[in-house]
């Protein structure tokens, strides 16, 4: 359900690490907001999570009163910020300084128009589902994280197929041999999911997608499922890995269980109302113009 930011008076700016364009843009936006009496703080994405000490206390206090967080970078930066800040109920607005930047609602050259509109009229806040991912070994959790895009179980460096057993709740969905399987949120459907032959899913839907990656002699098609039950994946071979949002890599042992469920914490994205979902996917070249 969408909500609304009525007033923006405090802004956190997170810039992509090592990106000169993002660094220059952060300075420009900071000065622009300051001239409009908006309080700002700028941090580098590499500083997340906030380091311990006095600096942490200052930033923690600032985060408590932040109305909006601007993320200057591409999708990788957005995912990094989301995974560190989403549990705080912080609203993100991406300004694309990367390549595709599908999670960014605003292109780098359009930020003055977007921010002017937000300061004058507020902004819609669109919740996007996230997934909670756990790895169980012998019934005990050895790894956990949350993802905004996808969790992928795949083979290692050797070109060997893995045998995957995929279940929903207590019900077996399928057993297949494949390079792997991707479990995607609607936001992540425009990433690895669609590249592997999965569907585009409107981001407002409360579903997830199970997409086999290069299945061998199998007619298993991508599945769109409601989020009311866990998805479990078990591989029977070594050199199998779990990749979360393309940022963390966890080696799996045979018969480890990867359990995926809807997270209680959503990704909150601000929308200046400049473009709708279909306009954006056409603009990014994900869906061709008619």
Write a compact overview of the structure shown.
With 290 residues, the chain is α+β, with helices and mostly antiparallel strands.
How are the secondary structure elements laid out?
Elements: E1 3-5, E2 10-15, H1 20-34, E3 39-44, H2 54-64, E4 68-73, H3 75-85, E5 91-96, E6 106-107, H4 111-121, E7 123-128, E8 131-137, E9 140-147, E10 150-155, E11 162-168, E12 171-178, E13 180-184, H5 192-195, E14 207-213, E15 223-226, E16 231-235, E17 240-244, E18 248-252, E19 257-262, E20 267-271, H6 277-283
Parallel strand pairs: 2-3, 2-4, 4-5, 5-6, 5-20
Antiparallel strand pairs: 1-7, 7-20, 8-9, 8-19, 10-13, 10-17, 11-12, 11-16, 13-14, 14-15, 16-19, 17-18
Write structural notes for this entry:
By secondary structure, the chain is an alpha+beta fold. The protein has helices at residues 20-34, 54-64, 75-85, 111-121, 192-195, 277-283; strands at residues 3-5, 10-15, 39-44, 68-73, 91-96, 106-107, 123-128, 131-137, 140-147, 150-155, 162-168, 171-178, 180-184, 207-213, 223-226, 231-235, 240-244, 248-252, 257-262, 267-271. The strands form three sheets. Strands 1, 2, 3, 4, 5, 6, 7 and 20 form an eight-stranded mixed β-sheet that branches. The protein has a six-stranded antiparallel β-sheet with strand order 9-8-19-16-11-12, with no helix packed on it. The longest helix has 15 residues, at 20-34. The mean pLDDT is 87.
Sequence of secondary-structure elements: EEHEHEHEEHEEEEEEEHEEEEEEEH
CATH architecture of the largest domain: 3-Layer(aba) Sandwich
DSSP summary: helix tally? 6
Number of strands: 20
Q: How much β-strand is present in the residues? A: 35-45%
CATH superfamily of the largest domain: Probable inorganic polyphosphate/atp-NAD kinase, domain 1
